[in-house]
Structure formats: C-alpha cells, structure tokens
Amino acid sequence: xxxxxxxxxxxxxxxxxxxxxxxxxxxxxxxxxxxxxxxxxxxxxxxxxxxxxxxxxxxxxxxxxxxxxxxxxxxxxxxxxxxxxxxxxxxxxxxxxxxxxxxxxxxxxxxxxxxxxxxxxxxxxxxxxxxxxxxxxxxxxxxxxxxxxxxxxxxxxxxxxxxxxxxxxxxxxxxxxxxxxxxxxxxxxxxxxxxxxxxxxxxxxxxxxxxxxxxxxxxxxxxxxxxxxxxxxxxxxxxxxxxxxxxxxxxxxxxxxxxxxxxxxxxxxxxxxxxxxxxxxxxxxxxxxxxxxxxxxxxxxxxxxxxxxxxxxxxxxxxxxxxxxxxxxxxxxxxxxxxxxxxxxxxxxxxxxxxxxxxxxxxxxxxxxxxxxxxxxxxxxxxxxxxxxxxxxxxxxxxxxxxxxxxxxxxxxxxxxxxxxxxxxxxxxxxxxxxxxxxxxxxxxxxxxxxxxxxxxxxxxxxxxxxxxxxxxxxxxxxxxxxxxxxxxxxxxxxxxxxxxxxxxxxxxxxxxxxxxxxxxxxxxxxxxxxxxxxxxxxxxxxxxxxxxxxxxxxxxxxxxxxxxxxxxxxxxxxxxxxxxxxxxxxxxxxxxxxxxxxxxxxxxxxxxxxxxxxxxxxxxxxxxxxxxxxxxxxxxx
Length: 638
Description:
Blueprint: E1 5-10, H1 20-37, E2 41-43, H2 61-77, E3 84-93, E4 96-105, E5 108-114, E6 138-142, E7 145-149, E8 153-157, E9 164-169, H3 171-174, H4 179-185, E10 190-195, H5 203-218, E11 221-226, E12 243-246, E13 249-253, E14 262-267, H6 268-277, E15 290-294, H7 317-342, E16 347-350, H8 355-371, E17 378-382, H9 390-403, E18 406-409, H10 413-423, H11 432-453, E19 456-459, H12 463-468, E20 481-482, H13 489-502, H14 506-516, H15 536-540, H16 543-555, H17 560-570, H18 577-593, H19 595-598, H20 627-635
Parallel strand pairs: 1-2, 2-3, 8-15, 9-10, 10-11, 16-17, 16-19, 17-18, 19-20
Antiparallel strand pairs: 1-14, 3-4, 4-5, 6-7, 8-9, 11-12, 12-13
C-alpha cells in the first residue's frame, strides 16, 4: 500500500440457493484465494450467504438463523488476515427484514450497512420482503457485541492515508441520488457495491456506464460485485459481472457467465489529488455519519495495474483517430476565433521541415479553409542557416507547395554572421549564444514579415518543449498565437500521422511520412556529412519519458518516487532503471528552472487535461525551488 496503491477484489462465488452452510464455505474458499493474491479490500455479492433468489424463503426463521451462522463462519475466516471484507445477507431488526452488507475485519463484524433503495418493479420484488434501511446509525447486537447498523456508515483505515470506504447495495447505484454521493462527500475515497444484477440484453453496457460515471463523478474508486452462478434461474439469469473503476476509468472487469474474480490496484493518493484539484468537490453539510476505524498493515502492493508508456495517446486505434480529429478541431477553432476577432487575413509561420512546424502549418491551413480565406494568405517562411540539412529544407518547401501556401525563403546566415561580428561572438564557438542568435533572428524575421503582411505569427512550439524549457527565450518561445502549446510531443507525431492517413493526397502523405521519419532537432549546429548533427533527445532525453513524467506529475500529482516506480513498469525492456532515473532528474531540474519561460507564454488553446498556461492550469512561481523534489530523487536506488 505504499504510494497509495491498494489491491482490491470483486468476487462472485458459486453458491447454492438457501444453503447457508455451503455458501459460507464457498465464500471462505474464495477469501483464501483473494488473500493469496494480496487483496486488501474484498467484496462479495448482495445476499450471497443465502442467495439473492430465495424469494419467500427470506421469511423463514431457519434461513435467517442460518445466514447469521454463516456470517460468523466467514468472520472467523478473516481472523489474522489483513483485509477488509464485505458480504451480503438478510438480517432481521425490530420486526423488519433488511438486505445488509456486513463489513468484516480480523475476525470481527465491524459494521452492518442496510440497502436503502428497495426495488419493486419489473422483475424485482424486494419490497415484498425487505424494508428500506435506516440512514442514521444505530446499534445491533451480534455474537455478543454491539455492531453499528445504518447506511450512513464509513470505514476509515487508520494506517493508510486517505483510505475511507463507503458501501451501497445494488439498486442504490441506479437511483437519482445514490447513497454513495453522500458517502464520498463525507470522505469516502472507495465505494463498494454488493449487487445481484440480473442479465438482460445490453444491461452490461449500461451497468458499466453507471460504475464508470459514479467513480468519475465522485472522484473515487468503485468496486462492484454481482451475483452469478448458483442463483436460481427460474425467471432470471445472473452473469457475475464484476467491475473495478477509478475516477471514470475501468481498471478491470469480468466477462459474464464465468464466475470470474477480478482484481484492481486502486490509487487512493491519486483520488485525493483529484479532489484537491477540483475545488468544487466539498463536504456534504448537515449529514450525520459514524466512522468505524480499522487497520491494515502497510506493505508494498505488487502492482498488476497497467501503466501505458504514452498516457497522452490512446492505445485503441479508433479512439486515437477520434482524439486526433478532436484535437485538430480544437487547435483550428482556437486560431479561427483569433482571426475573427482581429479581422486579419494573413498568417506567418516558420517552417523547418520538422514535426512541430508541420503540425502548425496543417492547423493554419485547416483554419483558413474554415474561414473561407485564400491559403495564399499563409506565408510559410523557411530560414536556412548553419545547421539546416537538405532533407528538412526540401520537405519544408515541398509541404508548402503541396498545401498551396505562399513560400518565402530567407537565408539568415549572413545576418547572423553580422550579428556575431557586432557582439564579438566567435563563429567557431558553438555555445548558447551561437545557437540562440539563430533562433532569435528567425523570430525577428517572422514578426517583421507579419507586420509587412498585416498578419499574425503562428507559434509552432509544443507542450513538451515548454515543460523542459527547450525553447530560446524571445526566440521560438514567442509568437502571436501558439497552436501547439497544449500538445505534447508524443501526440504531435500521431496528429501528423493521422493527417497523412486521412488527407487523401498521396504527395502530401509522402512528405508528412518523411517528416515523421526525421530526427527531432533544432538544427542549430552544422551538419556532419550532410546529416543532422544535433538530436534533441540525445541532449535532454527521450520525449516519451518526459511526456510520461509530465503527465503523472501534473495530472496525477505523483511525487518523484512514485513517478519512478510506475515508469519502471511502463518502460520495462525499453529503458533501464539508471536511464529512467537520470532523465527523471533532468525533467524536474528543467521543469522548475524554466518556469520563467512559461510565465510569459503567448495565447494558445488547451486541448487536454494537462496544460502549462500561466493564465490557466499552471500558476507556478518562476523562482520556485526544486530542492524537495531532487532530494527525494537522490534517495532512489536502482
């Protein structure tokens, strides 16, 4: 449970209707398997100790007593086991029958949560047997102890920061105002749901939607367990559809009709971070709750959770295509509004033959098409200098010609050499002044051409470069509207590839594919044998690593040790631990040290859940110290 991870299980045992002793043994057998897998929160279905489909047998005293004995048996099986367990059974209280979830921990029943919303429609007739559960917590005698009994009951782990569990039962999730809403607002970070949801055509999709939306709306983990094999099929069939979700994402789910136990690694600390981020998430006023403490041993959770190495890029091809189309639309509509506001009809941008300027040009062309403006109003300026290679220069020219924009060529070598002479810079000294003089000369040219044409300079730099500060201050760092400011480098590649695949122009696609195959480089140092001599990723590290670090630091709030932990899993077999740690330190050092560049960014559209605008998502001081973060990194071992 270090780093806030806790393994949970949704279990559907094979039961026998009304055979409480058998069902207790079945639950205990499944408990043993879940213990061995390392699960620390284990959830069984609604009324699983008797079977959900007992109908009028629920009115039989013998069945109710058998359920109590079964509960005692299962409770005993939790003794000495480091887990919080939920099982369902019917319980009588003061002459009424309740559908109850019992919480068990270390041999004890520590709480009883009754179902609040009792369905009595369509195939459901629970109202014939069960009463709606009381919200306010009262006392219930069981096995010589007084057990808290009520829906407004939470279970707080004293040893794991932020782990508080709330419980609801089946129909409670399907109503307009589920109990889980109040549970979450009163501090529950994990919701368990003991269910007996039967199968009808398409119901599994709706069930999944409910669980996903509940976890997203509540900013919580959600463990949903449903009845399955062994229930009566007199009129209904139960498929054992189990789901585990977190913040709107399904971590795992079972296939129907096979009685599969599913496991998931919930991240409680990420849930807490999401709630800190969302200022509108607050405590419910005027609610009376009882919190039951319990303890779990803090140990390392063996993670089975998948961490993709490209968190900004969907792995599913269809979803990725939809995402690319949406992002291109966001970029284009952002730029379109700027042109409608200014009334201008001209755009100027530097085109290098690299990925970023290619994407910016494609977005600008798309914007002009939307506005009904002549593409000739787009001036693509190629500005070769000391490091420009034939490949990138030719691609820049071909791209501009195929797209039908105005291509302007300005060789800046002489201007830069004069500048070197003016400032006393040795041309053979390839330092920061040598490189940045070229970048600033290019920006000056773009600004002046924009003044000449009465247009806007469209920026080309992407979000990954902004995160690392890999831009020349008042050089390529500056523009009048930065269309790529919200797009990380790992996603830029997919946007260009998507455009190549869907443009319907073979010549354009060929150029775009060659751009994709070109190494990322600012081309500020002279080429070697006609080839690019300066590869960005050799200098600052792989962009796929930096994008991964950026996502989990900003979007998920992970500290460096946790970022390193999940990066090792995501990039296993691609980068060794020493390399990941090296570039992680580089990332934090540059991210903090280069904030001053982000503090004065030009306008640009936010396209995803991570953005670096000083006017929006990242209000960070330019002189913040990185010492705390580097101190933790220095403690990490490989």
